[in-house]
Sequence to fold (139 residues):
Amino acid sequence: MIILGVDFGDARTGLATCDKNEIMAVGAGCVSGGFKKALEGTCETAKKLGAELIVVGNPLNMNGTEGPRSARCRDFAAELEAMSGIKTVLYDERLTTVSAHKFLSGSGLDSRKHKNHVDELSAKLILEDYLTARKNGVL
Fold:
């Protein structure tokens, strides 16, 4: 099934998608703007790609509890599902943005250009982890 991965952020929301066989995740762009623009842009991308499921990263605290950022992502996921009509799930994304920054730092890309790529890469990492968990029967 085609799945859309989402790294929701206040300024930019990263998107990634996978092939129908759920083997490979690739970046699907970024939506700039606040909550409403992120909802509209994500919904539009999901419909354009024919997504059957949307996975929104859930930034839990390191101890597994939900903080203010996690609650905001939960609200985003709920509104996204209502707006798009596509099943939306939250998936633990602790440290994906840190991993994305480390990857980009090692890539040789000018650090001033990281913000143009980090959110899309974070969404890709969230989706890849989700796909691995599905494949391994963890979900």
The mean pLDDT is 87. The domain at 3-135 is CATH 3.30.420.140 (Nucleotidyltransferase; domain 5). The radius of gyration is 14 Å. The CA atoms of residues 22 and 135 lie 9 Å apart.
